[in-house]
Amino acid sequence: MHVLKLWHALSLLALTLPSTTLAAVLAIDYGADFIKASLMKPGVPFDVLLNKDSKRKIQSSVAWKNGDRIFGSDAFNMASRFPSDSFSSVKLLQAAPFDSEAVSYYKSISPAELVETPRKTVALKRSDGTEFSVEELIGMQFSYIKGLAETLAGEKVYDTIVTVPPYYSQFERDAVADAIEVAGLRTLALINDGTSVAVNYAMTRSFPTPEYHVLYDAGASSIRATVAQFSTDHKVSPPGTQITVTGVGYDRQVGGIELDRRLREILVDKFVAKHQKDVRKDKRGMAKLWKEAGRVKAILSANSDAVSTIESLAFDIDFKSKVTRAEFEEACGDLKGRYAQPILDAVKNAGLTMDNITSVIFTGGATRTPMIQTAVKAAVGDDKIALNVNADEAAVLGAALHGASLSRQFKTKDIKVTDISVHDIQSSYFASAPSTNGKPRTITTNLFPAGSKVGTKKTLTFKRTEDFDIAFDYKDEVAPGFPKRMLEVEISGVSEALGNLTERGATDPVVKATVSLSQSGFISVTEAIAHGEIKDESLTGKLKGLFGGGSSSSEEDTQTEENTPPRETESDTSSSSASASASSSSASPSASPETKKAAKELSTIHLNATVHFISSAPMSLEQKQASRSRLRALDAEEAAKYRKEEARNTLESYLYHLRDLLDEENKDTPFKQCSQPSERDALLVKMEDTFEWLHDRADYAETSQFLDKRNALEALERPIIHRYQEIEAFPQALNNSQMWNWSTRLFLQEARQNLTAEQEADLPSKWTKEELDALEKTLKEHETWLNIWVEKQKSVKSNEDPVIETTEMKARAKVLETQLQKLWKRKVPKVKKTSTATAATATSEASESAKADGAGSNESAPEKEGIPEAEIPQDQEPLQSPKPHDEL
Ligand SMILES: *[C@@H]1O[C@H](CO)[C@@H](O)[C@H](O)[C@H]1NC(C)=O
Ligand SMILES: *[C@@H]1O[C@H](CO)[C@@H](O)[C@H](O)[C@H]1NC(C)=O
Ligand SMILES: *[C@@H]1O[C@H](CO)[C@@H](O)[C@H](O)[C@H]1NC(C)=O
Ligand SMILES: *[C@@H]1O[C@H](CO)[C@@H](O)[C@H](O)[C@H]1NC(C)=O
Ligand SMILES: *[C@@H]1O[C@H](CO)[C@@H](O)[C@H](O)[C@H]1NC(C)=O
Ligand SMILES: *[C@@H]1O[C@H](CO)[C@@H](O)[C@H](O)[C@H]1NC(C)=O
Ligand SMILES: *[C@@H]1O[C@H](CO)[C@@H](O)[C@H](O)[C@H]1NC(C)=O
After folding, report:
1. What is the pLDDT of residues 456-484, one digit of tens each?
2. Pocket probe mutation, ligand 5, options 744, 750, 768, 821, max atoms within 8 Å of Cβ
3. Which of 200, 272, 640, 649 is most buried per CB count within 10 Å?
């Protein structure tokens, strides 16, 4: 239990979002069928992230096998054996209310059992009864991707940008952001997938004259089209490209999954017709057919017919049937008009015609389906179709580039993006005065109409004296069964604040609320203030009123720099930032014209803005923490299991290795030569004990027991290995010692001669006699030690411990070497006049071990002349480090 507590504490930390920005940025294109991911990190090649099987796209699936989670295609394929423990395409359920159409649709494609969560959203139930919310299941997949990214990055990865369809509502965006946090990641931004393809497109191109392109994305769950204007400004250096999204069209019901579903219906009908048995009742059979439908669809993209063969599909019946493309297209006949419609809608929303469009860029897996290509070509003209981006990877690579530019730690091509929100967003509140019939009047404003730029703020002004609520709604249902109301914000502290202002002489105090539509598409109230003009009767006050401040009745929205979190994290109180940028919107009929800014500091009081979620609330902090802990617990459990298995396997293979070493048959092996019979007996006894223990107890044992058993065995083997290693290393060590002995001796001889000659010629010398004497003393000590101990070592048997260790030999040789190098490297002192600095510098610079370490730095360059090559006998070069000894 205490372990769980620890996890909880850790997850708290994770959710409090470290404020330091870390270098790596993870981009995830989370599709209903496939996940693509990419990591941006200095020093890591920019590419799509590969999974452990080197796949570039990873199936959006999670499943359980023997109690452990698996991901990707392994998880997807589990459905045909364990349909209740394999969950795919859960993206379709993001934020879906349990009674919405999305849920009944999901039931038509998946055998998974769905249950309702306390938040009225969806959870999926495993065969053992455990339930996981959609956010948790997606969080697991994000966490799996995080793991892959961290392996590649060699460090923790937090900052994440995830693509979402442009039509995603706040509910769905919240569900994505919640899953990101549940995975232990941090939301850097959400980006509309069409927009990220546009970024990818602009990366390698420039647009001297503005061009419009349609990014057409036929994905698994839906079809969407985004019109974007591209223009490059070459007047600035480096040239900057601006991408402006001007129109979006979409169809939430048509996509690759719907085509799969219809193709499966064909297969089901064929089975039923042939065998008179209802395969629909067989979950495994339906799961097999689901996989088969995907396969057949792919074949039909290139062929006019496909043969479907499934062994033991259901009721022990082997299924075999032929499907033609014509059959498939007929089954999808009613969808024909819908494939291209999003393009036409997007162009219309952008206020353009197809004539303005340079090309329609295809992305998404379903663009490979011939009938979709045909329909789009027919609608926009063959010549407009462009297949010049990677249909699978353009979105994730564009998202990564955008994420990198947001994090501002990378030098990327300067691409600015302006995106739009696609739903009408209204604000409403009760009017202060009831209508004439006494009923409260609701005042509704289309605050951010469809097509509004994201990353903007609007300020609402109210004449209120009491606390009140502002509600934010979608004008229309964003998807069947989804609520319209996003959130309600309670503005409190109004009467106190207004009382205060009035008491201080303010005239007409008002309440202002700043509403932000963030770059990632989240609505929030970022500030609420009470504000009134207080007449400053002093001279400075009057002057301020005359010259300063200036009235600001600027109409337009304030563009915000999105360095703030993409959504207000938790219970949102009014921010403390100065309200200098607040601009007026003519939203409220009670809106008063902006007053002079004079003495504004004195006349602004911050109010509390409390968020209430009426329906489809995002996860609360507590819920996210609980889910995070749950995932961590699963991770830890699986990791512990893995460690135990590994410990058991290593112990087992070690035992076999030992048995081999001890085998009577293997005579005269190094192991035998270096060990004594008593040691082998002890090892044999211990080995047999351990084998027995493994056989009887291993299934109930702890990881530590496996490790302990191995350690105990290794302790017995270690002295034997050591002997062997020493025998192996000894010749080299001796060679090394002798070499320094030899070199020093030669050096001394020559140095003494030179010294004498120099003294006679009255020339400066590099060394003093004392220094040479000291070196000789060290040499003699070394020689003596070596002579004595090498002699002793000669009589040591191979299965006895050595009397001198090679490490000691090396250490002693090093002492000699160091002292020799010191003198060796010395420069000839220049005869007076010439600056002594050179000599002094050179001496102090001399890095004592530079040469011996083989460091080829230029510091040691001057010493090259130090000792003539010839002085080291050719066969006395020091050897490289000993080779490893794993052949024991
Ligand atoms: C779109 O095309 C029409 C007709 O060719 C043209 O008049 C109009 O200026 C174009 N609009 C833009 C924004 O380029
Ligand atoms: C605002 O909220 C804080 C914390 O919730 C509370 O302490 C304070 O009294 C509130 N102020 C007003 C004016 O309601
Ligand atoms: C009004 O509020 C200010 C600070 O916001 C406070 O210093 C002052 O005492 C308040 N005055 C009254 C009359 O409440
Ligand atoms: C050290 O070198 C001297 C002279 O080169 C040689 O006579 C002596 O045997 C060497 N000693 C050892 C222990 O190698
Ligand atoms: C001794 O002097 C000669 C001639 O100047 C020189 O080449 C040699 O390097 C010197 N030897 C040492 C060990 O410094
Ligand atoms: C050579 O030495 C200079 C001065 O210490 C240093 O700046 C330079 O980096 C060195 N070059 C190499 C290759 O070590
Ligand atoms: C010492 O090292 C040299 C150079 O690697 C080698 O040729 C020679 O055989 C070695 N001598 C001994 C005794 O290992």
Report:
1. 999 999 988 899 999 999 999 999 999 99
2. 750
3. 200
Q: Choose one of 734, 735, 740, 745 to mutate for the ligand 4 pocket test, by most ligand atoms within 8 angstroms of C-beta.
A: 745
Task: Give the integer Cα–Cα distance in Å for 128 and 65.
Answer: 12
Q: Please say if the pLDDT value at position 881 is more than 50.
A: no
Report the C-alpha gap between 208 and 886 in whole angstroms: 64
Contacts of 753 (CB under 8 A, 6+ apart): none
Task: Identify the residue whose C-alpha is closest to ligand 6 atom 9.
Answer: 858
User: Is 862 close to ligand 6, i.e. is its CB under 6 Å away?
Assistant: no
Residue 176 and residue 202 share a domain: yes
pTM: 0.74
**CA distance from start to end of the chain:** 44
Say which residue, 131 or 54, is predicted with more confidence.
131
Give the Cα separation of 731 and 723 in Å (integer).
Answer: 14
If asked whether residues 331 and 397 sit together in one domain, one would say: no
Contact assessment for residue 619 and residue 117, using Cβ atoms and an 8 Å cutoff:
no
Q: Which of 370, 402, 418 is the last residue before a domain boundary?
A: 418
Task: List CB contacts of 399: < 8 A, sequence separation 6 or more.
Answer: 27, 28, 29, 38, 161, 162, 163, 191, 193, 196, 199
pLDDT tens digits, 440-451: 788 899 999 999
What is the number of domains present in the chain? Answer: 4
Q: Are residues 79 and 95 in the same domain?
A: yes
Residue 605: strand, helix, or coil: strand
For residue 665, the cross-strand partners are none
Q: 16 φ, ψ to 5°?
A: -85, 15
Q: What does the block give as tokens for 90? A: 């859960």
Between the CA of 572 and the centroid of ligand 2 the distance, in Å, is 12
Is the residue at 27 inside a domain?
Answer: yes
**Cβ-based neighbour number of residue 468 at 10 Å:** 18
Q: What number is the average pLDDT over the span 79-106?
A: 96
Residue type, 421: S
Sign of the dihedral through C-alpha 114, 116, 121, 127? negative
Same domain assignment for residues 278 and 196: no
The count of other CB atoms within 10 Å of the CB of residue 726 is 20
Helix axes 370-380, 341-349, angle to 10 degrees: 40
Instruction: Indicate whether 440 and 414 sit together in one domain.
Output: no
Give the residue from 360, 351, 362, 358 showing the smallest Cα distance to 379: 360
List, chain by chain if needed, residues with CB within 6 Å of any ligand 2 atom. 492-493, 496, 608
Strands 131-133 and 122-125 turn out to be antiparallel
Q: How far is CA 40 from CA 50, 51, 346, 406, 798, in A?
A: 14, 16, 31, 12, 56
Range of the domain at 785: 662-888
* Ligand 1 atom nearest to 229, measured from its CA: 13
